[in-house]
Amino acid sequence: MPPIRRIPSGGPWEGRVGYCRAVVAGPWVLVSGTTGTDPATGAIPARVEDQCALALRILEAALREAGCALADVVRVRYILPDRADFEPCWPLLRAAFAAHPPAATMIEAGLIDLRHRIEIEAEALKPDA
User: Fold this and answer.
1) Which Pfam families does the annotation name (predicted)?
2) pTM, full prediction
């Protein structure tokens, strides 16, 4: 069995909750729910589109560190406290995944910080698998 590799982001929630940004397990890369919180400053943009764009950049960086890209994502989950915020994100999501659309689910649920308006979780299959 191949070793499991953990990819931490260094964000404050990882230590508090007990998780890491991504886990590489064999050919799979599992990326934890990712919000639009600036990892350098902790700032959370007000607009859902800005949070979505930032979450996608953070998610993409974790995938890159694991040896993947957005094109390798096979499953994505979008969690939003207000389903009305989902449609404004569609252009960003379409741009990120359009050439290689993953299976997707949108869930309406509360998030850990009331300022968060979207969280994105992804599973990718490494291209060399």
Assistant:
1) Ribonuc_L-PSP
2) 0.94
